[in-house]
Amino acid sequence: MIRHTWPDTALPPPAPVPLSTSDERIPLQLRRELDAACARPAAQQPAWPDATAVHAARALLGAAPPITSPSEVRLLRRRLAAVAHGRAFVLQGGDCAETFEENTEEHISGTVRLLGDMAEELSSTGLPVVTIGRVAGQYAKPRSKPVDVLGLPVYRGDIVNGQDPVPSARRPDPDRLVRAHSHASRAMNYLRALRPVTGDVFVSHEALLLDYELPQLRADHPSEGGPAEVFATSGHFLWIGERTRQLDGAHVAVAALLANPVGVKIGPGTTAEEVEQYADRLNPRRVPGKLTFISRMGRENVGEVLPGLVERIRESGHPVVWVCDPMHGNTHESESGYKTRDYDDIRAEVEVFFEVHRQLGTHPGGVHLELTASDVTECLGASSGVADADLAARYETACDPRLNHRQSLDLVRVVAALLGG
Ligand code: PEP
Ligand code: MN
After folding, report:
1. Which domain of life is it from (predicted)?
2. Which atom of ligand 1 is least distant from the CA of 141?
């Protein structure tokens, strides 16, 4: 195996471009609050090699047409309020990492049709389904290690660098911020065209990269009057990942100022005190539909950890949506060396999630899945019977292993049975 020495590791890190919003379209008081939020430490930001290029990219993003509109975001907030009240169910899914290359008609329509079929299965239980794609902006990846097995800087998603295992591709490139926006706009345009087929599909991504999110903030006044609200126009629903959910960090502080519904991924290390603090900070006015907790505990931990968190929130009276991500706590390396997930673990985590809510009298509000309509071989098991030896055949993900078409349909039948029963 060739180990690369990354040529820039010996250089001092470049001066970061200040994270701030000087956008005069946002009222001064809100701008001040945003700037204070951005002054907090922001985890997982790339070391861009060229500050001038980052400024230029941010100016282009600030001038570009928004991807989503405040009225769409408000509609999603109302739909999620219904989920918080136990009257609807969330189906959120798509690639772990979207790529520019796969931003194609075939790939997007495949994901949207699959989500549509899954939503139909779920709505047979009588509950309306709120469908949210990990689509049109899911380009930034948090990483646990700064270098990969070859000694190269890790791939951080197409919005930052390239997947090819060579130093030039892995260098963060600020032009990618603008390319990501163009791709997201194209994907959103196509989703809107597909809509009369499929019903509303909202879009979501991890709000990881602040250089992408901040220039796309816009202020809007509610039609019924009232103070201006700030919208992230990069998507409808944004979430904060497990690696950037520091209570004193920039991601939480920025999300607290947004009118968008936001999610927080919570792993097995999350405490009851923390979830209550997230709720107090991210939704102090207790607006139903504003805050979703996306629990990603792992099969082994969910029964142990989740009940205490749900109980604490129930006692606090905060109106939150509880969503189960049964993917991210169940990742392991297969014997053949692939990062994979076992369908049985995924299914078991969903079952325990439902059981916890049944016991506590709270609403299991949805599922959050990494999936694709292609017949990939990335996760093990289910009726397609993917075995360890099959993983090499079609292991195509840019990051985490996804459920394939059949595995997704198998799982949604399980979820529908739990929801209906
Ligand atoms: C993801 O959703 O792809 C992800 C990285 O999740 P988490 O933050 O839960 O690890
Ligand atoms: Mn993932």
Report:
1. Bacteria
2. 5
**pLDDT value of residue 23:** 79
Closest ligand to Cα 139: 1
What number is the average pLDDT over the span 222-251?
96
Element (H, E) at 355: helix 343-360
- 37 CA from centroid of ligand 1 (Å): 22
Of 386, 302, 384, the closest CA to residue 340 belongs to: 386
Q: How far is CA 414 from CA 94, 262, 418, in A?
A: 19, 27, 6
Measuring from atom 2 of ligand 1, which residue has the nearest CA? 96
Q: Closest ligand 1 atom to the C-alpha of 400?
A: 3
Pairwise CA distance, residues 86 & 134, whole Å: 23
Q: What ipTM was assigned to the predicted interfaces of this complex?
A: 0.99
The percentage of the chain sitting over the pLDDT mark of 90, rounded to a whole number, equals 91
Q: Is 181 in the pocket of ligand 1 (CB under 6 A)?
A: no
Distance between CA atoms of residues 383 and 409, nearest Å: 10
**Would you state the structure tokens that stand for residue 203, as one six-digit string?**
């879009």
Q: Which atom of ligand 1 is nearest to the CA of 265?
A: 9
Residues constituting the chain: 421
| CA 29 to chain CA centroid, nearest Å | 29
Our answer on whether the CB atom of 156 is closer than 6 Å to any ligand 1 atom is no
